[in-house]
Design brief:
alpha/beta, Rossmann fold, 8-stranded mixed β-sheet, 10 helices, globular
Length: 347
């Protein structure tokens, strides 16, 4: 199938544009906290990135569910065991109405053949998607990392995909969700240390935040995390819903901490890392209009010593997670720094 990607908050912003400008800041803040999977699909904008892969390949990895909270939610997740999946990635790009479109094709052997890591994984990678997306968007990385020996866990975050939850909390509650997922994996005997938090965009900011709260997280890969939430929201508005008045959106952003019952700076990753710096591999795109390179560097500068920043040329916020030719080698090298040595060959 072809799964198409729309970017963080795009459906929300279009809904606000449809509703008009008469609403108050509190109304918009509540919509920003509303679970993305409750919005009607007709609001989804034209995709700029397409993912091509077999429509049923995820069924080879049975869906499981875990109850988390409070507030209560039921998360869907899948475990991808280490195996030789023979993943291949190709891409095609074209221009449509002045906008660059990109399609990434992924081919893999599923189920994969066992490899030296199947019985003894090198560790566990939890992969977290962007706002408004679901587990499928991180599935190519799960197959690629599992191919290199890592047990990978795909998850629909609270209020996304097939998970439940009436609201999202921009990471302030979701870190507890993720820790409860680890607890469930441990009970199943599926939590092999070290544990890696791997995310993109909204999921990347969650990965960084999670590292500050759970000592089981040994390493972080953060692809285009936002530093200041309001900046990211305004940038997305400019890109996807330019008809929405900025004052209206700013009023909603100002009210969001009150709606979520958190201090205002708790929603900004620059503030979180200033208080609790963590070491991570950061990935930014030189053509990112949502988290511009200057914003990405500002967040990186607040990270703990030993962190690394990679800039991918000719990439955008939408495309950079799938630039495997530029990212696979440094990501694997980063994970190797926290991995056990290779399993001995059997003769």
């Amino acid at each position: 199938m072809t799964a198409w990607i729309f970017r963080p908050l795009a459906n929300l912003l279009l809904l606000l544009a449809v509703l008009g400008t008469a609403g108050c800041g509190s109304f918009i803040a509540h919509r920003m906290a509303q679970a993305p999977n409750t919005y009607p699909t007709w609001l989804e904008p034209r995709a700029r990135v397409f993912l091509g892969f077999g429509g049923r390949y995820l069924t080879n990895f049975p869906a499981q569910f875990v109850e988390v909270g409070p507030p209560p939610a039921r998360l869907r997740y899948r475990v991808i065991e280490p195996a030789d999946y023979q993943l291949e990635v190709t891409s095609t790009n074209w221009t449509e109405r002045g906008r660059k479109r990109v399609q990434f094709e992924f081919r893999a052997d599923v189920p994969g053949r066992t490899n030296e890591w199947t019985a003894v994984p090198r560790g566990t990678v939890v992969l977290m998607h962007g706002y408004g997306l679901a587990e499928f968007s991180m599935a190519p990385w799960a197959l690629r990392l599992a191919q290199d020996g890592w047990r990978c866990v795909l998850v629909d975050l609270r209020g996304h995909g097939k998970s439940t939850g009436k609201e999202i909390y921009w990471g302030t509650v979701e870190t507890r969700d993720m820790s409860q997922l680890l607890d469930a994996l441990a009970l199943q005997g599926k939590l092999s240390p070290p544990v890696v938090a791997f995310g993109e965009s909204y999921g990347a900011s969650l990965a960084l935040r999670w590292k500050t709260t759970d000592p089981r997280i040994g390493s972080v890969v953060a692809i285009t995390p936002y530093g200041v939430l309001s900046n990211a929201v305004l940038n997305i508005c400019r890109e996807y819903a330019p008809i929405l008045p900025r004052p209206l959106l700013r009023a909603g952003i100002k009210e969001l901490p009150t709606v979520l019952n958190v201090p205002p700076d708790e929603l900004d990753m620059t503030s979180v890392l200033a208080r609790h710096p963590v070491m991570a591999l950061f990935v930014m795109a030189d053509g990112d209009e949502v988290v511009p390179p200057a914003d990405a560097r500002q967040l990186f500068e607040r990270a703990a010593p030993g962190s690394r920043l990679i800039e991918v040329p000719e990439a955008t916020h939408e495309t950079v997670p799938y630039h495997f030719s530029e990212l696979v080698r440094p990501v694997l090298a980063w994970l190797d720094t926290n991995a056990p040595p290779p399993a001995p060959e059997l003769h």
